[in-house]
């Protein structure tokens, strides 16, 4: 049986650098994701922990697995809502796709093709940052419109797998750590 990473594989630290000091009690968590199943389990754990008003900034190079992780969050949230999982295509061309769940709506955005930050307002993202759960690929395009309390997940290649570095409010890192079957 192929095992995804367990919580013992993670390294965890309280926020201490200058950037994080501005945001209060942020913590870091580094997870090894050796295969796509591990990515799916992280998405499932996030779906259980995210709440209305949470924005997740998914960074990493082309092919790092941002869409795969967003898809896992969305499909897990739909399963938890008793809905059959929908197809979750990459929003490369539509820029934004929205998904209903029993809880908050989930907005999945890929801002790679954005040419001007003014388009962020046109896409309706600003109210969504408060009213929905937002999963944002290529978040550098947000510029100053980036929510100050956003959850950051940086994905890197790690051999054939991936590594995820999370920076998030302590309550989310704690919630991920406290789950019975953590990632
Ligand atoms: N943990 C993992 N281990 C190995 N492969 C993975 C893992 N997670 C995702 N992948 C694979 O990585 C590939 C690229 O994933 P994905 O399309 O999600 O990348 P992306 O970061 O969204 O790229 P883009 O910048 O083009 O939007 C997919 O084939 C996916 O199956
Ligand atoms: Mg993508």
What's the arrangement of secondary structure elements?
Layout: E1 11-14, H1 18-22, E2 26-33, H2 36-49, E3 55-59, H3 66-80, E4 96-99, E5 106-110, H4 118-122, H5 125-131, E6 133-137, E7 151-158, E8 161-169, H6 170-178
Parallel strand pairs: 3-6, 3-7, 5-6
Antiparallel strand pairs: 1-2, 2-8, 4-5, 7-8
Helix pairs in contact: 2-3
Bound molecules: adenosine-5'-triphosphate and magnesium ion.
Residues 66-67, 90, 110, 137 line the site of magnesium ion.
Structure description:
This protein is an alpha/beta fold. The N terminus is likely disordered. It has an eight-stranded mixed sheet, with helices on both faces. It is 30% helix and 26% strand. It has a single domain, classed as Rossmann fold (3-Layer(aba) Sandwich), CATH 3.40.50.300. It contains six helices and eight strands, in the order E-H-E-H-E-H-E-E-H-H-E-E-E-H. Adenosine-5'-triphosphate binds next to helix 2, helix 3 and strand 8.
